[in-house]
Design brief:
By secondary structure, this protein is mainly α. It is 42% helix and 6% strand. Strands 1-2 form a two-stranded antiparallel ribbon. The chain is globular, with a radius of gyration of 10 Å. It starts with a helix and ends in a 7-residue tail after the last helix.
Amino acid sequence: APDWDAVAQCETGGDWSMQGARYSGGVGFYNGTWDSFGGQEYAPNAGQATREQQIAVAERVYARHGASAWGC
C-alpha cells in the first residue's frame, strides 16, 4: 500500500483535518468517494475523521482503484 503520510504531504501538506468543498481529509478524498467507500461510518466529512479512520477508507479505495485514485 502507499505511504499514506507521504500521499497526505503531497495532496494537502499533511493536513488530516482539511475540509474542502470538493476534497477533504489528509489524502484529499473527493467528498463523494468518502461517502461511497463507507466513510460515513466514521464521520460526515473525511476531515472530521481521525488519521487512522481516513487511512482505513483510503485502503478500500486503493484496493478498488489502485494508486491512480490520487494525483500524487
